[in-house]
Amino acid sequence: SLLREMEDDNFKKCGGETYARGHLRNIATKLQIDERIFLDIFEIEVAAPVKPIRELLSENNVTDPYQEPKNVSWKALAAGSLAALLLFGLAQVIFSIASDDPVITTLPSVKVSESAKPEPTESARPISADAVTIDIRATRGASWLYAFDKEGTQVFSGLLSKGDSKRLSDPKQLNLRVGNAGGVDISVNGKEVGSIGADGEVVNLTYNAD
Questions:
Q1: Residues 151-167: pLDDT tens digits?
Q2: pTM, 2 dp
Q3: Domain for residue 201, yes or no?
Q4: 22 lies in some domain
């Protein structure tokens, strides 16, 4: 089917990557899911960045890397030569004076300032005992994530790329909808949670403060 071919990165029958984005929008509408989630994953997994032709030729050793020509300023060269002569003459004078009458130079003391302490990372901040705090880490793959409080108000919606992490906290309850259960790890109030599902599996989770 057309959907199966799109899952296998075959976009010939659907009209190419541009039409594939339109199909993804229609699928997201049918599933009542934010279309930006599908499109973000499509860009990460399928779409390739477009490079200028000059960079492509350089990467394939067809042409040498392009460099802007540098204009030589004869005035700058003349000024530099004059400055070098003045410095040489000044050094000769200082050397002759120093050889006749040595001068003891005292180096100024240097104050060492205390280095600024780094700000604690999101996962390193203390966890409140009067709330439910959840850390979600995309350790094995990207996953989209929705989070709602007890009243059904959305508190987070977005895509976690591989290596990203997100901390959520609520005084009562948090409800999660994870798009790739096998790609993420979850800890609740500092305690690791076991496997929540397989790769590509969509799961719904609820955690309470008590």
A1: 999 999 999 999 999 99
A2: 0.42
A3: yes
A4: yes
